[in-house]
Amino acid sequence: MGETLRRARVCILGATGSIGRQALDVCAKHAARLEVVGLAAGCAVDELTRDARAFGVRDLALADDSPDARARMEALGEGCACEFGANAVAELAERVAADIVVVAIVGAAAIAPTLAALKTGARVALANKECLVAAGSLVAAAASPGQLIPVDSEHSAIFQCLQAGHPSELRHIWLTCSGGPFRGYSREALAKVSAEDALRHPTWSMGPKITIDSADLMNKGLEVIEATWLFNVDARRVKVLIHPQSLVHSMVEFEDGATIAQLGAPDMRGAIQYAMSYPERWEAPAPAPDWREKGPLTFDAPDLETFRCLALAMEAAHVGGTMPAAMNAANEMANAAFRAGRIRMTEIDEVVEVVMDATSPATVESLEQILEVDARARRAAEACVEELAR
Ligand code: NAD
Ligand code: MG
Question: Where are the domains positioned within the chain?
C-alpha cells in the first residue's frame, strides 16, 4: 500500500487541434497515470496558453516565431517558458524529457518533430500520417521495435488485431473507410460540392484538412501508405473496404483465412488512449456501443472512378521512393486551395495528378532530399492551382 507509480511524462505536439484536445481529455481522465509536461502548437497562442494553465504546464513551443506571436505569448503566457520556431517544436520532447510524445501536428510539418521525438527514445503516439506518407522509410528506420504506436483509428485497430497472430502470417489488411459525406456521388455531382458541404462530416469531428481528405478519399489513400510503413507490408496487401457505419475500425486477415476485426464507438479518444496505455487497457474514455442496437453492418468496394485521389495515392504507393512525398505535398496545397474556394473538389485530384506526372521518383536518402521534393511539389501544385483558378 501507499506505493505511488511515477506518472508518465506526456508531451503533445499539435495540442490545440482536434487530436491534441482529445489527447488532453485522455490525460485529464487518467491524471493519476499521465502528467502533461510540454505543449506545442502552430500559431494558436490563446488556446495554447489556456491549456497550459489548465494542466499546469510550463514548457511550450510555438512554430510561429513572428514578432506578433511573441508579443501575444508575452501577454498571455505568464509563468510559461515558450520557445519559438519550427526547431523549438521539434526539440520540445527532448527539452521536457518526455516518456510519451503525441504527434498531432497536421501535414508534412510533422516530419522533423517525429524524427526528433523518436531520437529521444520516448514512445511516439503518432496521429500524423503525412510524415509516414512523405518520409515513411526515414521514420521507420528511426523507430526502435515497439516505440511507434499508431493513433489513427484504423491503424490502432490493425495494431490491436495483429496481436492475434504472427506478422509473418498476415495475408491482408482490410482498411475500413466510411466513404465520406459524398459516398454514391457521380463525378459530376462531386465537382459541384462546396467546402462548407464537405466540412459537415457525418461521424467524426476533425481538423479542416483531414475533413476534406476524408470527403475526397485522399485520407484513405494516405492511410494505405501509412499502413505499409507501420506494419511493414506491401501496398498490394492493403485492401480498402467501404463501411459507412464506422464501427469496424479495420480488420486483419491471416494466412488461414481467419479475419480479426476491432470494433468500437467512433471516438478517437479510444485510439489515443490505447497508444498511451499499451500494452495495458484502462477505463474507457467513451461508453461502448450496445451491439443489439447497432446492426446491420455493411461493406462495399470503393469507387475509384469518382474518387480519383484514392487511386492516385495507391499509384504513388506502388511507385514508391519520393513519389508519395510529392503526392502528399501536392495534396496539401490542393486541399487548402479547395478550402479557400479557389478550385473545385474534383480539381484536387487534377492538381495531384499533374504534380505526380512531373515528378521523377528517386530512392529516399535523407530528410533534406524529402524536404526539397516537398518544396518543389508545392511550387508545381501552386502553379497548377493558379492556372485552374484563372
Ligand atoms: P487540426 O488542424 O485540428 O490540428 C492541428 C494541430 O497542429 C494544431 O494544434 C496546430 O496548431 C498544430 N500545428 C500546425 N502546424 C504546426 C507546426 N508547423 N508545428 C507545430 N504545430 C503545428 O488537425 P487534426 O484533425 O487534429 O489532425 C492532426 C493529425 O492527425 C493529421 O495528420 C491528421 O491526418 C491526423 N488524424 C486526425 C484525426 C482526427 O480525428 N482529427 C484522426 C486520425 C488522424
Ligand atoms: Mg483514420
Answer: 8-150
Find out whether the beta carbon of 20 lies less than 6 Å from any atom of ligand 1.
yes
Compute the distance from residue 49 Cα to the ligand 1 centre, in Å: 18
Which CATH class name applies to 8-150? alpha beta
Characterise 56 by phi-psi region: left (phi > 0), alpha (psi -120 to 50), beta (else): left
Tell me, in angstroms, the distance from the centre of ligand 1 to residue 169's CA.
34
Reported as a pLDDT band with limits 50, 70 and 90, residue 4 is low
Q: Which helix (H) or strand (E) holds 37?
A: strand 34-41
Question: What's the predicted TM-score (pTM) here?
Answer: 0.97
Are the CB atoms for 150 and 275 separated by under 8 Å? yes
- C-alpha cell read off for 364: 529516399
Residue nearest to atom 15 of ligand 1 (CA): 42
Q: Of the bound ligands, which one is closest to the alpha carbon of residue 268?
A: 1
Mean pLDDT of 62-77: 98
What atom in ligand 1 is closest to the CA of residue 61? 20
Sign of CA dihedral 177, 181, 187, 190: negative
Type of residue numbered 351: V
